[in-house]
TrEMBL record, chain A:
Species of the source: Miscanthus lutarioriparius
Function in brief: Subunit of clathrin-associated adaptor protein complex 1 that plays a role in protein sorting at the trans-Golgi network and early endosomes (TGN/EE). The AP complexes mediate both the recruitment of clathrin to membranes and the recognition of sorting signals within the cytosolic tails of transmembrane cargo molecules.
Polar residues composition bias: residue spans: 719-728
Domain GAE as annotated: residue spans: 811-928
Membrane topology classification: Peripheral membrane protein
Keywords: Cytoplasmic vesicle, Golgi apparatus, Membrane, Protein transport, Transport
Family under the similarity heading: Belongs to the adaptor complexes large subunit family.
Record's signal peptide: none
Full protein name: AP-1 complex subunit gamma
GO cellular component, one term: AP-1 adaptor complex
TrEMBL record, chain B:
Region (Disordered): 19-40
Principal location class: membrane
Keyword Membrane: yes
GO CC term, one of those recorded: endomembrane system
Similarity comment text for this entry: Belongs to the adaptor complexes small subunit family.
UniProt keyword terms in alphabetical order: Membrane, Protein transport, Transport
Keyword Protein transport: yes
Listed name of the protein: AP complex mu/sigma subunit domain-containing protein
Domain AP complex mu/sigma subunit: from-to ranges: 46-185
Pfam families, A to Z: Clat_adaptor_s
Organism: Miscanthus lutarioriparius
Domain of life: Eukaryota
TM spans (from-to): none
Signal sequence extent: none
Length: 931, 187
């Protein structure tokens, strides 16, 4: 805010006084008040200084009023407020309010005349506190119907506060409104217009539109302006009426009174939205008038009446500029016509006052919105540049806001301010930082991505904790979007991991691992960089996981400095150093289960890479045999057994991971992250499985690998999983690429276990689901002995999915038979997007059990109001006979009271059998819980 | 698809037939939600609400230009007040809340909050708040929180002269105060 602006919140003042206004203009500058019509004629002269004199007197009078006159019996308003303020607890306050309400109710029912005004004032206060006041509604109507102005005044105020357009009581007031609109007193007309403009419903709009139209022609400007605003409400409620107001609105723009002008401009905007004809009409007829208004108001010298912060009526400026934007949008002629005046406003308006800046801001938006000349656009962008470098936070906020919109129009111009915008990312105010970060994100392109990312990453080092999450997400998103250069991508990711590894989402580092596994020439560099980073910042969870994984996979590259890059300096790491690093991580207090599990896998791999350390690793692994976490205990036992007893197969078992399928992973991730951005811990593995998973199967993935591992020592070991043996066979077949097509999920159980086991192949997001064909080549032959080996190899790498996967919200729901009759069966299967628990996609499948074909099949559904339903078109309207094929249709259901109320649905099916109409209906209440 | 949707509407009768009694409460909720949805869609409104709140978070004046139920009002006031009161003087005067913005300004112990649409000119709304304060000041003379509480209806009268149906009508202090002064003189 400019320092000379009148906005100076004086927080330093001790009392609760609001600071005095700037000195009032001298008496000679005040135009006499418009005192033409009064409720009761009051003779005498118009006072010279009405504002100041009368205020004092009125305050005194009112105090007297309260002290002696009508308000003396019962509690006064002031007393009630005091009593309420004195309450120490909410219960006390409720008691006071209840007592007051009872008194008011009694007064109303007795037809008390003296205290109606005060009772209404009390009711307003009670309403403001958030208590129901419906019993006062009828009293409002009575007050409106009274003859005097004060009664009407308070009555109308009560009407707008206590009622709304949807209450039926409102219909009763239509008649009073109509009478008041035709009243001879302009203030009463004004009241009625005001109330109508605030609360009228579509029916009232239709009834009273003629009156309002007539009042638009009234000679009193105050009535005109209110009629114009009332018309806005009418047009909004009944857009068909727009045409009636077009010419009147255009002619109002010729007025002098600012109140009329501002209302007329707003009416024009509403008309443009309501009908295209009106837009065309106004383009033709009122552009000239608008330009004239804007010129007059921006050229006018000091006008005390409309002076706001040193500028003449900024509100009128802004409304006119807004309307110009609507008219000029997509219309070259109009745009050209207003070019000059826009240039004038944007150069002449003072930019050292808040009001002036408000106008400039609106002007820039209009220039960006219309088909402006390039010169004008440059002018606009320059204004924004000035705003950006302003020291006032408000101005900078709107500049960033505006630049975000301008980027669509002129990216180059916005790019010029990149440096300043980057500075704003580091601002102290979180509102500004967020805006700036979003803008930077939009500004990134191929040419500037490297310097911009460097800036952001540098800032990550010093930024607030709360802001790191946003910042990290954006950096990762930028880096991934522009990851043409793999080395650069790795470098940035390593830095982000070391600086803010705790804020990184799982899918980001999963993607990093996939990429590293594909970039064979960079694996050496990666593992060395990560090793160094791990030494420096071992508390960043994601960094630790990635580093541990890499050390396990590429340990020999770390120790032998294999595949060095030119710019790299060799480091000396011994085999036991590498083991030390992993061991330290495993023992670190803050490491979570997933990290520890990964450490164990890594150690196991190292025991094969570095045979001399094998003994030591055996001891470390064995320490966890008694771990209270089942996952770790199990791994520890399994791995110990591999190290001790299966030396012969260990090396082939612990070979490096096959290259992960990048394209496949990216597709999966895109599908799963779209919806799951918000849920931090959602493991993509769970979402990539189909909707057919049964909950019981899903809940037990860990036992499966155990069974497989035990298989090594005894060929016919009992299968400890809940899945039937056939399922495992399926899986083995799948693994070898045999009979992939045959294992289509027919029944529930086989497909379930299939899914589980497939998931076990994955690191978190199952990137190797299509892996088996590629790994096939590494198997010597398809024989029984090697066959079980592969699952363990893969299983050992799955550390992530088995422990972190499958949060509840991703649990699948069983398919239900929603409806069954002698002729028709309907089954529903369910699917949910992660992160949107209230939304469910239902796949309905219809099967005809009769022997005749159904034609013109239509399925309809109805739901209670807290549920929203959308039906997609059915795949066909003909149902073949005897269950030979089925029709499917998908339904999207949003349960707005998810978790509180279950889904419920009524359905109706109509179809024709041999040309004869049939109708079936039913209710579905057996939806699975949790929908 | 359109056809299906229409049939769903006509089916609402079917639903009601069986579930009228059991689901009366549910339906009321549903209607309420539909209503607030409609109000939300009606986003032409420039000013959605004007709130005066003191430092303790107590509402001192509330004027809504869209319909909200009592509970919704309480929730909204609570959320916004919590957000705005936590900010320091150095931070900018705009807070993004749900699908709209709150422009706020603090005068001594009172916060003036105005909820506006996203494409509304925030700086102009700041000027509007100041104009409102100046107008009250001219009427009450060094206005304070108590003036507003005890003369709630007068502040509402002023606001009604300035804003109608969410649009600004009048920006001249003299025009705003004229009817109020006339009324007081005659009564």
């Amino acid at each position: 805010m400019a320092s000379n602006s009148p906005f100076k919140p004086k927080s330093s003042r001790a009392s609760s006084q609001i600071p005095p206004p700037p000195p009032p203009p001298s008496a000679s500058q005040i135009r006499p008040a418009v005192v033409v019509l009064l409720v009761r004629p009051c003779g005498g002269e118009i006072p010279r200084r009405p504002a100041l004199d009368s205020v004092e007197r009125i305050v005194e009078d009112f105090a007297m009023d309260l002290a002696i006159n009508p308000f003396s019996s019962g509690t006064r308003l002031r007393d009630m407020i005091r009593a309420i303020r004195a309450c120490k607890t909410a219960a006390e306050e409720r008691a006071v309010v209840r007592r007051e309400c009872a008194a008011i109710r009694a007064a109303i029912s007795e037809g008390d005349q003296d205290y109606r005004h005060r009772n209404m004032a009390k009711l307003m206060f009670i309403h403001m506190l958030g208590y129901p006041t419906h019993f006062g509604q009828m009293e409002c109507l009575k007050l409106i119907a009274a003859a005097g102005f004060p009664e009407k005044r308070i009555g109308y105020l009560g009407l707008t506060l206590l009622l709304d357009e949807r209450q039926e009581v409102l219909m009763l007031v239509t008649n009073s409104l109509k009478q008041d609109l035709n009243h001879s007193n302009q203030f009463i007309v004004g009241l009625a217009l005001c109330a109508l403009g605030n609360i009228c419903s579509a029916e009232m709009a239709r009834d009273l539109a003629p009156e309002v139209e007539r009042l638009l022609q009234n000679r009193d400007p105050n009535t005109k302006k209110k009629a114009a605003l009332c018309s806005i409400r009418i047009v909004r409620k009944v857009p068909d009426l727009a045409e009636n107001f077009m010419s009147a609105a255009a002619s109002l723009l010729k007025e002098k009174h600012h109140g009329v002008l501002i209302s007329a401009v707003q009416l024009c905007m509403e008309l443009c939205k309501a009908s295209y004809e009106a837009l065309e009409y106004l383009r033709k007829n009122c552009l000239e008038g608008l330009v004239r208004i804007l010129r007059d108001v921006s050229n006018s010298s000091y006008a005390p009446e409309y002076d706001i912060g040193g500028i003449t009526d900024p509100f009128l400026h802004i409304r006119v500029l807004k309307l110009m934007r609507i008219l000029g949008q997509g219309d070259a002629d109009c745009s050209e016509y207003i070019n000059d005046i826009l240039a004038q406003v944007s150069t002449k308006t003072e930019s050292n006052k808040n009001a002036g800046n408000a106008i400039l801001y609106e002007c820039v938006e209009t220039i960006m919105g219309i088909e402006a000349t390039s010169g004008l656009r440059v002018l606009a962008i320059n204004i924004l540049g000035r705003f950006l470098s302003n020291r006032d936070n408000n101005i900078r906020y709107v500049a960033l806001n505006m630049l975000t919109k301008a980027i669509a129009v002129d990216t180059q111009a916005v790019q010029r301010h990149r440096a300043t915008i980057l500075e704003c990312v580091k601002d102290a105010d979180v509102s500004i930082r967020k805006r700036a970060l979003e803008l930077v994100y939009l500004l990134v392109n191929d040419t500037n991505v490297k310097p911009l990312t460097k800036e952001l990453v540098d800032y990550l080092e010093v930024s607030d904790q709360d802001f790191k999450e946003d910042l990290t997400a954006k950096i990762c998103s930028i880096v991934e979007k522009f990851s043409m250069d793999k080395l650069w991508y790795l470098d940035q990711m390593f830095r982000v991991l070391s600086l803010a590894g705790n804020y990184i989402k799982d899918d980001v580092w999963h993607a990093l691992i996939v990429l590293m596994s594909n970039a064979s020439e960079l694996q050496g560099y990666s593992v060395r960089s990560l090793y160094k980073a791990l030494q420096a910042s071992g508390e960043q969870e994601s960094l630790v996981r990635v580093a541990v994984w890499c050390i396990g996979e590429y340990g020999e590259m770390l120790v032998n400095n294999l595949s060095m890059l030119d710019m790299e300096e060799p480091i000396t790491v011994t085999e036991s150093d590498a083991v030390d690093a992993v061991e330290a991580t495993l023992q670190r207090y803050s490491a979570d289960v997933t990290t520890r599990a990964m450490c164990l896998v890594s150690l196991l791999k190292l025991s094969s890479r570095f045979p001399p350390t094998s003994e030591r690793i055996k001891d470390i692994v064995a320490q966890n045999k008694g771990n209270t976490v089942l996952e770790l205990q199990q791994r520890s036992i399994e791995f110990s057994s591999i190290i001790q007893r299966h030396q012969s197969i260990k090396s082939s078992l612990l070979e490096r991971m096959p290259v992960l399928d990048e394209a496949n992973y990216l597709v999966k991730r895109a599908a799963s992250t779209q919806a799951a951005v918000s849920s931090l811990n959602s493991a993509p593995a769970a979402t990539s499985g189909g909707p057919f998973k049964l909950p019981n199967g899903v809940a037990k993935p860990p036992p499966a690998p155990l069974a497989d591992l035990l298989d090594l020592s005894s060929d016919d070991a009992p299968v400890t999983t809940s899945s039937p043996t056939t399922a495992r066979n399926d899986f083995l077949q799948d693994l070898l690429g045999i009979g992939l097509t045959d294992s289509s999920p027919i029944g529930g159980a086989p497909s379930t276990s299939n899914d589980i086991l497939m998931d076990l192949l994955s690191i978190g997001s199952s990137p190797v689901q299509n892996g088996p064909p590629t790994s096939n080549s590494s198997l010597p032959a398809i024989e029984t002995k090697p066959v079980p080996v592969k699952p363990q190899v893969v299983d050992l790498l799955d550390g992530l999915s088995s422990s972190t996967s499958l949060p509840d919200e991703n649990a699948a729901y069983p398919t239900i038979t929603a409806f069954q009759s002698a002729t028709l069966r309907i089954t529903f299967s369910f699917k949910k997007q992660p992160g949107k628990p209230q939304e469910t996609t239902i796949n309905a499948s219809f099967t005809n059990l009769a022997t005749t074909t159904f034609t013109d099949f239509v399925f309809q559904a109805a739901v209670p109001k807290f549920i929203q339903l959308r039906l997609d078109p059915a795949s066909s309207s003909t149902l073949p006979a005897s269950g030979n094929g089925s029709v499917t249709q998908s339904l999207s259901v949003t349960n707005n009271q998810h978790g509180q109320k279950p889904l419920a649905m009524r359905i109706r099916m109509s179809y024709k059998v041999n040309g004869e109409d049939r109708l079936e209906q039913g209710q579905i209440s057996n939806f699975p819980a949790g929908l | 698809m359109a056809k299906e949707r229409r049939s769903v509407e006509s089916l609402s009768d079917l639903w009601r037939a069986g579930a009228e009694q059991a689901h009366r409460e549910v339906e009321d909720d549903g209607v309420e939600q539909q209503r607030s949805k409609q109000a939300g869609r009606d986003d032409e409104m420039t000013i959605r609400f004007v709130l005066f709140v003191n430092k303790q978070g107590q509402t001192r004046l509330a004027q809504y230009y869209e319909h909200l139920s009592l509970d919704e009002r309480r929730a909204l006031e609570g959320e916004i007040v919590r957000k705005c009161l936590a900010r320091t003087d150095q931070q900018c005067s705009f807070v993004e809340h749900r699908n709209y913005k709150v422009v706020y300004r603090r005068y001594a112990s009172l916060f003036f909050l105005v909820g506006v649409d996203n494409d509304e000119n925030e700086l102009a709304i700041l000027e509007f708040i100041h104009l409102l304060v100046e107008t009250m000041d001219r009427h009450f003379g060094n206005v304070c929180e108590l003036d507003i509480m005890f003369h709630l209806e007068k502040v509402h009268f002023m606001l009604e002269e300035m804003v109608m149906n969410g649009c600004i009508v009048e920006t001249s202090k003299q025009n705003i105060l004229a009817p109020i002064q006339l009324m007081e003189k005659t009564s």
